[in-house]
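G., before I forget:
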Amino acid sequence: MTDAPLPSVPAPREPGSPDPAGARTVIVWVTEGTWRGCVDAARALAPAGAAIVLLHISPEEVPGTAHGAYAGLLGRGHPERDPGPRLAELATAAGRELLAAAADRLARPCTQVERRGRAEREVVAAAEGADLLILARDGDRRRLGPKSLGRADRFVVDHAPCPVLLVWPEDAPGTGTMPPPPPHPPRHGPRR
Amino acid sequence: MIRPRGWPEAVAAVPAAVAVVATGALSPQAALAEAERLGPVIGFLAAVLVLAQLCDDEGLFHACGTWMARRSGGRTRRLLAQVFAAASAITAVLSLDATVVLLTPVVYTTSVQLGARPKPQVYACTHLANSASLLLPVSNLTNLLAFAAAGLAFPRFAALMALPWLAAIATEYLVLSRFFAADLDAGAQEPPAAQPAGAPVFVLAVVAATLAGFVAASATGVNPAWAAFAGAAVLAARALAQRQTTVTAIGRSAAVPFLVFVLALGIVVRAVVSNGLDRVLGPLIPGGTSLPALLAIAALAAALANLINNLPAVLVLLPLTAPAGPGAVLAVLVGVNIGPNLTYTGSLATLLWRRVLHERGAGPSLGEFTRLGLLTVPAGIVLAVLALWASLHVIGG
């Protein structure tokens, strides 16, 4: 389910085709908790004149879960007491506030887009035709390894239709966090 | 039990109740006896619903959100623990309706204000509304019905269910904090300059006095519903005097169509049970209160709750399990209270009906909901039944 976006994501171009105005489109996925890292990366790394789109997704499963809990209360029959629609309204308002804060921090011209749906799918759909997608790691960063990329990030990285810039929400770790190499490195080349 | 969207379910249930009496499926005397049995339960339920709404009017839930925002220090795992504490306490004392309808939006707003992802906290509310409703007779309508059937005193009910309640909450916490690790690790920000919010001392004192009243009433042989009435009356008088509410609003919060629905549902279920369902289900219910028997009863109750919703399920199972004693009845409650977390909207019947209606805004990823249900419900039921079995041995059924 997609909300009527505030302004829509710029129309996709054929991959690789030059933008008529020569501008690159950079999509910044703004999520609670980790958005500052993405916005800072966009500010530092997006080419001058790039069309920056700040994208926030309100997950539909949050109001949906509250609605389901109310629907399961047999016999109450008062749709106006259903917390689902209230949460959906609150979510849209909160998303817009978050986007406004991100635009302030970016301090560059940008477009703000708020959508509702399954976050990872909406992000992949919105990134079609873009030149770059910036997202932050959302997994377990206390133990660096495969799980330091959460489910939603993993989906986006796997399916993104454009190059992806994956940033650390905080300072990047030093190389000392690498585990020691395996004791027996795999052999290369033909065996003799 | 199934209704067109937006209509009180009573519109379907009352004609059905009239029909079972008119067709002779249930004698008028039996229907009257069922109504007399359910009357006090329904009165108790109305008092608790009014009490919860008046607590909200007095700012209890808002204060709860402010407390969580201030004390979490912008740490998401601490916030989740606070949501667990608040949702468990509110469900236990003011019933699961209060958690779903009144607490969930507050928890959502608090999470968003802290810049935290709201999903783990909202899931915690919806899950705990069911699984943390084991503690007191007032926590869930299923408990009120069983409380009347099992002949347990209020304090004894609470004493026997305290360990199962804690076991169910601990299971939820262990699973949810791992399941949503990515959302929790995304972090939050420091809370905005905390507004010094005064604790709603009056309303907390009334709720505490009401709880004490439940115990005192049981000790003196008075129906504990009167304590709930007294608590609601004190809050109502104050709110009316301060013009914070109206008599109409208080009447609306008593949810009269819901009360009528429960009465009608009780009569219909009684007719169905005494016309053959007892012979179908009876052999499936193990006798006694050994650990395997309690586990089987809870599993059957959870399965039935997921098929037809937990309210009809408890009405069906109570007359069949009450003869085996309070242990069996409490095992039914473990099943029907924790079980609904397995199915989005609490039962396949409700889910299918909403699908039939193409109700807009269904929403959540059913896969995620069901995975979480599979991780919490079987484990929660087994651990809660173990805890119940231990309590029955220590305290005695």
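Chain B has a mean pLDDT of 89. Residues 28-57 of chain B form the longest helix (30 residues).

More on Monday.
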